[in-house]
Amino acid sequence: MSSLPPVRGKLTPNAPLAPLVWFKSGGAAEWLFEPADADDLAAFLAALDPAVPVMGLGLGSNMIVRDGGVQGVVIRLGKAFASVEQLDETTLRCGGGASGILVSSKARDWGIGGVEFLRSIPGTVGGFVRMNGGAYGRETCDILVDCDIVLRSGERRVLANADLGYTYRHSNLPEGAIVVRATFRGFLKPSDAIQAEMDRIAAAREESQPLRSKTGGSTFKNPEGHKAWALVDAAGCRGLRRGDAQVSEKHCNFLLNLGEATSADIEALGEDVRARVKAQSGVELEWEIQRVGVAK
């Protein structure tokens, strides 16, 4: 790669990504950029050779990084992008790197209901906006007012909810765009009632999901009229293994790294599951987990 533009943040060559993703597998980023702020990010992207690929990385919870690593620049938003502010009685302005737990906890403290579901999604605001993250009957599109993004060109833009063309686990956010901030709006609700709902969600997750495992969260999208986990179970895939990669016995829509699974093992296991479900039910499962980088 040609020389990179100067930055005020941190640029790391050949940066291992396995420690940064929940599966704890995969190769390195050619470059990892942790910008000092949105201006630093915009200036860097504006000066970066347009041919260099760019990818955003949040908490790495919904991602398989292939074993050959990721070419170009991986952008990770750190503490400078993790703020949560109250704009008015029901509105929050959140940095793109803020976690769902932080956003929902701040909302509780300020008596803003409707964002409790973010407590259950292991990701950041940027990922929620891009993927229309949702759980327990609510989605990001239900609370998003607008978002501030930096395009691959370095141009900064504000997009309203209606601009994003939201559907199930999908948005029309431009390719390569990085969400640096989002505005969410809920409704007035007593803090103790919000806490009770968050406790209910946490207990439901604890009971049904393998939370203390090396996993990637929900692997496949729910097909129209179906639950992905039920299709996987019906196809006999509960506990199915490929090396150290396994379909969770607790929740069939989660894949696990039991120890030393490679990303190739995990992705191949997912494809095994898709093939078995297709053969058993005729339904084609679509990946919800992002698979990025190059195979080794």
Percent of residues in beta strands?
A: 25-35%
- The CATH architecture assignment of the largest domain turns out to be 2-Layer Sandwich
Round the Cα radius of gyration to an integer and report it.
19 Å
CATH fold node name of the largest domain: Uridine Diphospho-n-acetylenolpyruvylglucosamine Reductase, domain 3
- Count every helix, treating DSSP H or I runs of 4 or more residues as helices: 6
* Structural class designation: alpha+beta
Query: SSE order in H/E notation?
Result: EEHEEEEEHEHEEEEEEHEHEEEHE
The portion of residues assigned to helices is 10-25%
For the termini, the CA-CA separation is: 20 Å
* Uncertain stretches of 5 or more adjacent residues: none
Secondary structure elements and pairings:
Blueprint lengths: L9 E7 L11 E7 L3 H10 L6 E4 L5 E3 L4 E7 L7 E5 L2 E5 L4 H10 L2 E2 L11 H7 L2 E2 L2 E2 L4 E7 L5 E5 L17 E8 L1 E2 L2 H18 L5 E5 L9 H7 L6 E2 L2 E3 L6 E4 L5 H19 L8 E3 L4
Helix pairs in contact: 2-4
Notes on the structure:
The structure is a single chain. The protein is α+β, with helices and mostly antiparallel strands. It has 3 domains: about 10-80, Uridine Diphospho-n-acetylenolpyruvylglucosamine Reductase, domain 2; about 80-195, Uridine Diphospho-n-acetylenolpyruvylglucosamine Reductase, domain 3; about 210-290, UDP-N-acetylenolpyruvoylglucosamine reductase, C-terminal domain (Uridine Diphospho-n-acetylenolpyruvylglucosamine Reductase, domain 1). Helix content is about 25%, strand content about 30%. The chain contains 6 helices and 19 strands. The protein is globular.
